[in-house]
Design goal:
Largest sheet of chain A: 8 strands, mixed
Low-confidence stretches of chain A: none
Radius of gyration of chain A: 18 Å
Number of strands of chain A: 12
Oligomer: homodimer
Shape of chain A: globular
Order of helices and strands of chain A: EEEHEHEHEHEEEEEHHEH
Chain lengths: 237, 237
């Protein structure tokens, strides 16, 4: 049996302004199966490891809204609130300030990925403890093409994978990575850590762990959540 | 107004054996919103262009099953049946034998993509008429990584796109491409045509145009099809 030897944190990034949802409610607060998306995400981590510390990063404008929602849904889980920055990079950096134990493992999770499984969460945290970092990934099912200046070319999709969250890191490594300057090409935390010269360790994600960025995704998430039959499949990458 | 000057065919490839569905019914025959998946796909082309000629490629074992289903659902659309080959490449090649007018445009569509929109279909056929070929594509939303022998590296996802069907071609070009030898790396028709030296022309696909390859996808397709609000978004690539 593997002993859990390091404290765990998860920074849940809920900084989006929901511009693509055609809805005044930011997407992380939209209701999914009767509850705001973000509460599903938080619950998934607490169900997986009740001792994990949750740091929720929100735009300043949404903090009051969050508190009202917590009251409305009787949601009283221990959650620390950090404030969003200009970009996702700056938001994660702000969240990291609440991680006070450097001898720990920290995950960074998109608030709008409520369908992550405990299996994916544990795989990422355990591998990060062992390898310094771990990123859940799934195969790409469609054919893909690389776009060049004047044309596009087919590439072998089996040589690519799509990454998800939680992306987990030894805290000292992630903190060091976030002392680097911001670069606009960073789309996830793995890229920030990689920029420092670290090799990224991949673990199997779950195919349903989609990012809710539009109305279509909310419909999909609702359907998967309500599905009678078990549809959660852990893809081998 | 653009005049339609070329006859149109579509080869609908329904050759899969449904091994991943844990279901004795091949996936293209599974019910979606009360009707087999494959009938939705065929209807979408006929609704878009009633004069299009449909060539359905099926494994020999499934032809009788298809006929029984047509009787059961009162489905009497004009459909020519070709037999599947050893791989998708060979199936398309068999379907092409039913395309008797070489001065035409032919689309190749996965039977298990019932959520293609008329807009995607028309965009592909019209562009193929103009450029010789056209492939619907959508942006990749997750961060992606390239897998190398001993590690993986982040790549810029904005430089990649995922391709869908129908992939459309001037018939003479596609027929010539399919005289080439089979290669196991071909995952779509664009790759076969590209192997001949042609540049591939991309058009906007629709994000919902997913390929049904497992139970999860059937649940997603059902939810999108039943959605009250319009969720069909044509992504700019």
């Amino acid at each position: 049996m593997t002993e859990i030897s390091h404290k765990r944190y998860v920074i849940i990034v809920g900084g989006g302004n929901g511009a693509r949802m055609n809805n005044p409610v930011p997407k992380q607060f939209m209701k999914l199966d009767g509850k705001p998306v973000i509460m599903h995400s938080i619950n998934k981590f607490l169900e997986t490891d009740p001792s994990i510390e949750i740091i929720l990063v929100l735009p300043e404008d949404h903090v009051k809204f969050w508190e009202v929602m917590c009251a409305e849904y009787g949601f009283n889980k221990p959650v620390k609130i950090a404030l969003s920055g200009e970009t996702r990079f700056h938001s994660v950096k702000n969240g990291l300030q609440f991680v006070d134990d450097d001898n720990s493992v920290v995950g960074v999770h998109d608030a709008v990925r409520p369908l992550v499984t405990s299996k994916t969460i544990l795989a990422a945290f355990k591998a990060a403890e062992m390898y310094g970092n771990a990123v859940p990934a799934v195969p790409i099912n469609d054919s893909i093409r690389q776009i060049e200046t004047t044309r596009s070319i087919a590439v072998d999709r089996s040589r690519y994978c799509a990454t998800q969250t939680p992306q987990c890191f030894r805290t000292d490594i992630l903190k060091k990575a976030y002392t680097q300057d911001y670069h606009y090409t960073y789309t996830d935390d793995a890229m920030v850590v990689e920029a420092m010269g670290e090799h990224i360790h991949l673990v199997d994600g779950n195919a349903e762990n989609l990012k809710i960025t539009g109305p279509k995704d909310l419909i999909i998430a609702e359907a998967l959540m309500k599905a009678d039959s078990p549809v959660f499949i852990h893809s081998k990458i």
